Task: structure prediction
Amino acid sequence: MPHFNGGGAFDWGYSFDDLTDILGITLQEVLVAEGQQRCVLVAHDWGAVLALMLQRKFPHLVSKLVLHDVEIQTFGGHVELRTVGTLLLFGFVYQYILATAFVLTSIPLIGIPLGNFLTRLVTAGIGAPLCQDDAGLRRAGGMTTYPYLWFNLHLGLEAIGLRPGFDRRHRIN
Result:
């Protein structure tokens, strides 16, 4: 995923639909190179969200999913009010702060240090595995938090009916 290697110029990242397509193409290439038709896909956190989307869009590539620490995801665009309330409460404390850190990185000169500070403050505060040592803490940067912006913005639009759900966008029955 962009910026997870610690470098690169600012951009708004990829949408989840774009990442699903990129991962599908990559997985197909790996399977062909290995002489395989399908795989067992193991994923965590944001990877679990993407793995679910990948399996729904490219079911012929994935035989099984093993998911850990899975985010809430809707595929049909139907979100219960209780789920929206949970996202608002949970998101405000954690996800919205990280989405803000990403947006801050777009401010010339001071944005990246501000976004990095906010990201490191949150990730260290919640004891994220990435931040268990100094090297990991240095890798936790504001430019890596764009999935929080994309996820919450798009889920919100789906919840109020202004954006079709994943299944409708990709014509999945």
Summary: The mean pLDDT is 77. The beta strands are 39-44, 62-68.
